Amino acid sequence: MHLATQSTICQDIIFPYVDNILPALYENPQFTSNAVEYQNLKATLQTFVVIAFNINVFRSQFNESDFLIRIMDAPLVPSSIGFLELLIKICVNCDISKSRYCQDIVAKLEGGFNSLPEDKQKRLERRLDASSHSLPLSRSNPRALQIFPSIFKNIDTEAGVTGDGTKPGRTSLIKREYSECSCLAVVVLE
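-> structure tokens emitted (190 positions)
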């Protein structure tokens, strides 16, 4: 059993800890990513990825508040591949498309992604696409992936394979113009 299902540690300690550490990050732009505050934030986000993937009850904590937006406002978060990966995984795992903050979250994450140099963008895409990466990313809800068209760009429905050469039967995303967090059509190739 996961500690998050058997106790109130997440609600009573981890979420409030992030709320308490954020002002220090906002007020100290001279911090580097090696600062203990950023390392602790990263560790808590890793925990959030796992609980958002495995435990439904925590998803509302991310969907019904501006918690993720406040994290993205920390100076080093939007420019860090590690933080972007974790935040995107949290958003997909809890299906942020259901959040009233969806547009703001997507804009901040896509803005951070688009501001990265091309080599770092490709690196982040590989990290999000790798099925062997240590932290889970739910692919069972295509809509949650579709809200990030710049990041998840498997585009090609011709010839029964996706743009990245994956085998038929996997979900292929077709890029479309979007508004209000519904941005792509989904085609399952047989």
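Residues 155-190 have pLDDT under 50 and may be disordered.
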